[in-house]
Specification:
The protein contains five helices and no strands. The protein has helices at about 1-20, 30-45, 45-55, 60-70, 80-90.
């Protein structure tokens, strides 16, 4: 929650500075949000490429557990594969 408040505060500060300097925002809000979504999706390309280079398959389960939470900000629902991985981690 603290991160969201800080992000909002910084955004407000930048908005105030833009207003004082009479500068328009560099991008309309919808375009800026689409750009941010592109950044979030783009960040997931590197782990996918690393996974492929390691000889591991990119599965729907991996996408749901690793990529979707980072893009959407919502925790992934537990799956059978995640439960098995957790058991492996606990055993180690």
């Amino acid at each position: 929650m603290k991160l969201y408040v800080i992000s909002l505060a910084v955004g407000l500060l930048v908005g105030i500075i833009y207003a004082v300097l009479q500068v328009r925002s560099p991008a309309p809000p919808a375009i800026a949000l689409i750009g941010l979504l592109g950044m979030l999706i783009g960040e997931q390309i590197v782990p996918g490429v690393k996974r492929l280079m390691a000889g591991e398959a990119i599965t729907v389960s991996w996408l749901r557990s690793e990529c979707v939470p980072k893009i959407s900000g919502v925790e992934a629902k537990p799956t059978l594969a995640m439960a098995a991985a957790k058991l492996d981690d606990d055993a180690a």
